[in-house]
């Protein structure tokens, strides 16, 4: 496995989650707890408190706020990490040139989960 950091820069788009692999199924209970806690934070915290929680302000906060609501609602658009993330590491790695079996060995730990 190769561990890579997520990037603050993300490509837009995606679609609904259509299938879950074994890894996603194993993580489901923990992800549900995180989603529930996030929903509670969104419902009870002020925007200033949420900015602190998310660690962003301005336009990035606006995007994060919308994204977190979509996660809680179950409507977040998903796309494989190798297509979502942008930035220096990802541009130099150029995942589109890596074979599918090799890409499946790249793990990107989620900052949210």
Describe the structure.
α1 packs across α3. The longest helix has 23 residues, at 22-44. It is built from six helices and two strands. It has 113 residues and is mainly alpha-helical. Helix content is 54%, strand content 4%. The two termini are 19 Å apart. The mean pLDDT is 87.
Taken as a percent bin, the fraction of beta residues is under 5%
Outline the low-pLDDT stretches: none
Strand order in the sheet with the most strands: 1-2
Using the alpha-carbon principal axes, give the shape.
globular
- Helix fraction, binned, reads 40-55%
Radius of gyration in whole Å, from Cα?
15 Å
Overall number of strands: 2
Tell me, rounded to a whole number, the average pLDDT: 87
Return the string of H and E elements. EHHHHHHE
> In whole angstroms, how far apart are the ends?
19 Å
| Strand-pairing-aware structural class | mainly alpha
Q: What kind of sheet is the major sheet?
A: 2 strands, parallel
Number of helices: 6
In short:
54% of the residues lie in helices and 4% in strands. The chain has 6 helices and 2 strands, in the order βααααααβ.
